[in-house]
């Protein structure tokens, strides 16, 4: 007992020493504006102190009071506590940057993905609540957390954040690289007009669809109104020939402000590394698999920052994202001089992260003082006024703010979708309406299926599959028959129709063909009749779930497949398995998790009611935890 007490006292002493090492340097700028925090580990601070001071001075010269907090951080909580303190002060907190060897939260259960995701949403979204699991025994900078069942699921950060961390284990090299990077930021001017943009997208991203490629440049012109009126102002590399050499050449252009790469950039990164090339675009958006995986010893995004070129910041994801994601949302605000951190924070998710200086901005063309407005409490009157300005950039922001933070805005969103001449505004109206999950949203999806903007039509098709409402069938069948030129649409339409009752789909298709004047109508009718004599995807899946002779692993795999394919007709069978106490616990648990994927389904309310009833039953604690999380995934938050 005495030995135990001595060990405990020793541990408490070590903790108190560690806490005593924490130092906080207050801002030198006196202002009531929201503050910024530089968080840096002790060793990095010791080796880069002058550069950190220069960085702090540069940020404060831009009008942001800046704290420097450094010390020994054993767990993410050590940092989060300090951030919460600053956020709760009268001055509050605008953003933070994590420099050097800062603990990495590895988060479970924020999505139905079963793998942990490195995410700084642990730090910047104070609404999320976590249970600590463990520290990685090998990579001790990694700390594993499980999202609590009662925690919100929607990401809504309270302030922006970014990381400046060098990949690899060579600490001396790390300190030199971070030092040089911070000095680069300190001397970079913030009055550069965003007037040169480059986009490179792989053939796989477009799936060979030239319509989508041509459409995208029209959206860029709405996002970026100050582009120079020359061929160099907006350069869209041909997706059928986006060679590594073409990408590297664009990276050497010193006038490039923003570069979007939507492809696997592994070979490009290797070339940059091997040839020690500098990169010059000020800001880069990488829609590349795991380019921002800062939990690994090597992550692609870092190689764009730590060189002698001009690159100040990179946006990338820590894990692969669905191809349907659209990282350019709100990027038009960059044209008006809004800080990278503010723009990055809008419509954020678990995986997407910012690397580099989040306070950087291009030349201020904004008369609305949005750098201050965005980080303030929501003001319905202000956002309503901003919505009336004839600017697609302002309107997309206003729709987002009004639609996600106030009630009874469905009609406003719907009207802008119906009458706006701007592709980007209609896309934002559609995506913001999706958070309402109501009849107005379904009607808007129905209209969006035939929108001239391919991205809207494709996104509407994806939503239609997730909703599963049979009222969408007439429009869906028209898309299959009449929208043959848009390749990506045709690649999605057939599996989308596959989630509905096959007899209903066959009836609608035959009706549409019989009412048409198509030359090969008879042959098309015959093909459809042959097609729908086969068993549908969901019928086969139901049979496998019901067959208890199948292994538990096989049945769980089928349940997960049903969720990923949005087979709404299988929901009742999944609920039956959940209710059956004779079924294995792991299978029932998998079914409950799978139900959380139906967050847009027309059956959503039924699932929620059923889950709430289950919470009142004598189900195990483990099962109830999963039920709570599923309810939160399904509810409108």
Short structural description:
InterPro entries: ARM-type_fold. It comes from Sphingobacterium paucimobilis HER1398. With 637 residues, the protein is an alpha/beta fold.
Strand and helix layout:
Layout: H1 2-20, E1 23-25, E2 35-41, H2 42-61, E3 66-71, H3 76-87, E4 93-99, E5 104-108, E6 117-118, H4 121-124, E7 130-135, E8 142-147, E9 160-164, H5 171-187, E10 197-201, H6 203-206, H7 210-223, E11 234-237, H8 244-251, E12 258-262, H9 266-274, E13 283-286, H10 302-305, E14 313-317, H11 340-345, E15 352-356, H12 370-373, H13 380-387, H14 392-405, H15 410-419, H16 423-433, H17 439-448, H18 454-467, H19 473-482, H20 487-497, H21 502-514, H22 521-531, H23 537-546, H24 552-565, H25 571-579, H26 585-595, H27 604-615, H28 621-634
Parallel strand pairs: 2-3, 2-4, 4-9, 5-8, 10-11, 10-12, 12-13, 13-14
Antiparallel strand pairs: 1-3, 5-6, 7-8, 14-15
Helix pairs in contact: 2-5, 13-14, 14-16, 15-16, 15-17, 17-18, 18-20, 19-20, 19-21, 21-22, 23-24, 24-26, 25-26, 26-28, 27-28
């Amino acid at each position: 007992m005495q030995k135990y007490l001595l060990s405990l006292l020793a541990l408490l002493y070590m903790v108190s020493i560690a806490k005593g090492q924490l130092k906080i340097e207050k801002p030198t700028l006196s202002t009531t504006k929201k503050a910024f925090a530089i968080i840096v580990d002790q060793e990095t601070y010791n080796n880069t102190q002058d550069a950190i001071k220069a960085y702090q001075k540069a940020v404060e010269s831009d009008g942001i009071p800046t704290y420097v907090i450094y010390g020994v951080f054993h767990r993410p909580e050590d940092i989060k506590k300090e951030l919460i303190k600053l956020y709760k002060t009268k001055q509050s907190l605008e953003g933070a940057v994590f420099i050097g060897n800062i603990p990495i939260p590895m988060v479970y259960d924020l999505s139905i993905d079963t793998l942990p995701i490195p995410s700084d949403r642990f730090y910047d979204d104070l609404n999320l609540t976590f249970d600590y699991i463990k520290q990685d025994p090998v990579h001790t900078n990694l700390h594993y957390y499980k999202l609590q069942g009662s925690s919100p699921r929607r990401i809504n950060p309270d302030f922006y954040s970014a990381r400046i961390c060098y990949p690899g284990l060579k600490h001396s090299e790390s300190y030199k690289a971070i030092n040089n990077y911070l000095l680069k930021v300190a001397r970079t001017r913030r009055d550069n007009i965003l007037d040169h943009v480059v986009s490179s997208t792989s053939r796989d991203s477009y799936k060979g669809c030239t319509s989508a490629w041509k459409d995208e440049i029209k959206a860029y012109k709405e996002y970026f109104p100050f582009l120079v009126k020359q061929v160099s102002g907006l350069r869209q590399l041909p997706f059928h020939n986006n060679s590594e050499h073409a990408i590297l050449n664009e990276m050497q252009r010193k006038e490039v402000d923003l570069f979007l790469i939507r492809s696997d950039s592994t070979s490009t990164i290797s070339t940059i590394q091997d040839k020690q090339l500098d990169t010059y675009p000020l800001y880069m958006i990488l829609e590349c698999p795991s380019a921002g995986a800062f939990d690994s010893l090597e992550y692609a995004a870092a190689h764009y920052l730590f060189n002698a070129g001009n690159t100040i910041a990179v946006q990338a994801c820590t894990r692969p994202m669905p191809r349907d994601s659209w990282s350019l949302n709100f990027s038009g605000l960059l044209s008006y001089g809004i800080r990278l951190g503010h723009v990055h924070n809008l419509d954020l998710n678990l995986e997407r992260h910012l690397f580099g200086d989040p306070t950087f901005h291009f030349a201020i063309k904004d008369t609305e003082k949005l750098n201050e407005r965005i980080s303030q409490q929501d003001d319905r009157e202000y956002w309503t006024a901003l919505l009336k300005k004839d600017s697609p950039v302002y309107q997309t922001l206003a729709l987002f703010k009004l639609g996600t933070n106030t009630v009874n805005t469905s009609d406003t969103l719907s009207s802008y979708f119906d009458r706006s001449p701007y592709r980007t505004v209609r896309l934002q109206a559609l995506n913001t309406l999706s958070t309402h999950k109501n009849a107005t949203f379904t009607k808007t999806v129905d209209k969006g299926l035939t929108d001239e903007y391919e991205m809207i039509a494709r996104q509407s098709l994806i939503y239609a599959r997730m909703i599963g409402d049979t009222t969408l069938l007439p429009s869906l069948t028209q898309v299959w028959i009449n929208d043959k030129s848009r390749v990506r649409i045709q690649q999605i339409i057939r599996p989308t129709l596959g989630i509905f009752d096959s007899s209903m789909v066959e009836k609608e298709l035959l009706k549409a063909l019989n009412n048409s004047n198509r030359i090969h109508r008879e042959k098309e009718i015959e093909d459809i009749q042959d097609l729908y004599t086969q068993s549908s995807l969901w019928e086969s899946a139901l049979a496998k779930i019901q067959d208890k002779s199948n292994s538990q692993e096989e049945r769980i795999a089928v349940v997960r497949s049903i969720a990923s394919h949005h087979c709404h007709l299988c929901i009742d069978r999944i609920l039956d398995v959940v209710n059956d106490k004779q079924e294995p616990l792991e299978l029932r648990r998998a079914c409950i998790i799978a139900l959380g994927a139906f967050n847009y389904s027309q059956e959503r309310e039924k699932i929620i009611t059923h889950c709430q009833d289950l919470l009142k039953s004598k189900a195990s604690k483990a099962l109830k935890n999963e039920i709570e999380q599923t309810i939160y995934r399904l509810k409108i938050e």
